[in-house]
Structures are given as structure tokens and as C-alpha cells.
Known about the structure:
Elements: H1 7-24, E1 28-29, H2 31-36, H3 44-56, E2 60-61, H4 73-86, H5 94-105, H6 109-129, H7 137-151, H8 164-211, H9 217-222, H10 228-237
Parallel strand pairs: 1-2
Helix pairs in contact: 5-6, 6-7, 6-8, 7-8, 8-10
Amino acid sequence: MEENRSPEEQFLLDMKELLEQAKRQGGKVTEEEVRDAFETPLNEQQYEVVRNYLDDNHVGIGKAVDIERLLTPEEEKYLREYGRELASLEQPDPDVLDAVKLNAMAGETEAQNELATYMLPKVVDLAKLYAGQGVYIQDLIGVGNMALMAGVKLLAPLSGPEEVEGDLAQRIMNAMEELINEDMGSAAIGEDALERVNRVAGAAHELAQELGRKVTVMELVGEGEFTEDEVMDAIRFCDNKIPDIDYRQP
């Protein structure tokens, strides 16, 4: 453990690395892998925290979580239709695939395209690991496919073909996680905006009842709770639909 890292920070880092390991293994880890993932032995309370963390991220201990129950009907339909398209793809023999990987590492465009095609089903498998985390699986597959297409052109630094699939899988997972994080950030921004609209609308309603009429923006600002920019932002967020504000008056 690094000297400048607290036990709590190390615990969180170990949990994150365990989750990444589980994703690489199809959404599951063993009891032994859970125990071995941490710098110091887990007590029962810590083990329960780890179990809940893995469960929240749809990772099973001993066996994979049933991802199908996390899918919406629209996602299930999409996977069926997309699966039929991928079913026509023939996977080459291991020796042939290794040759394709080597040629892709050497920068041959045709081999890179072939490798990307062979890896398309893997993108679907990885996307399923992130189901139920607020992003449609078709969007996860889309961003995963883009990461795959970019990744097959970046294989030159690898030592051999045995590293290719792991490298591409990591790039695909990184892209999916980034999409999920962006979506969560957008949701948080949306919640903040809604909260501001509600606060401004509530203040406008109270002042309008006191004055017996709609209020102007500057009258609301004059109450001292909001700046003019905050009031105008709230008005824009809700498309001029705060009923107690007179938009015709400055």
C-alpha cells in the first residue's frame, strides 16, 4: 500500500479494481477472488459493503447476475434483432484469428477491419454487463463499437496477439463507463435545474400572493434570495412557464 494512501482510500481502490476484474470475467467473481482483492483481510461488515457494491453494479459472486431481468422490452427487442445480424458472422479458427491480430498490430487496414468485425459479438457481451445503469443498451453497444473501431488501429504497442482481445475489451469498457458517467452527470444537472425552477416558482408565488398580482423579475430579485441571472436561468429552463412571473415587465 502506498504510504500517502489512507486505509479507506485503499479499500475503495481495491473495490474498484475488483469490479473491473469482474467485468472482464463476464460479470462475476469467486469468493476467493473477493477475499484476495484487498490489501488487508475483510471483516464481516466490510465484506457486506463489498457484496452490496458488486450487487449494485450487477456483479455476482460465484455466478453472473441474470442480466435479462434488467432489460426493458425495447432493449430485449433490439438485442434479438441485432443478434440475428451478428449470427451470420463466422468466427475463424484460433490460428487464423491470431494471424489477423498480428496483421492488425502491423497496421494492415484489412486485417484491422476483419478483427473489428470478429469482435462485434464481444461488444454486445460487454454491454450487457452495464445493463440497468441508466443508459440504453443500444447506446452502450454504439459507443462500444466506436471504441472497437478506433482500438483496432492502436494495437502496435502490444507484445503479441494474446494481448489484443484484453486491450480492446478494456477500451470498450472504458467507453461504456464514460458514457454512463456522462449520463449521470447530465441527470444531476437536470435535477439541479429542476430544483432551481421550483425554488424560483415558489418564491414568485409567495410574492404574487402578497402583492395580489403577478410579479416582475426585478421585484423577485429585490427580495434578495436570487440574482437576476438565477431567475432568468430558471425562466429559460422551464420555457417561460412560471405562472406568477409577468414576463412582459422588466
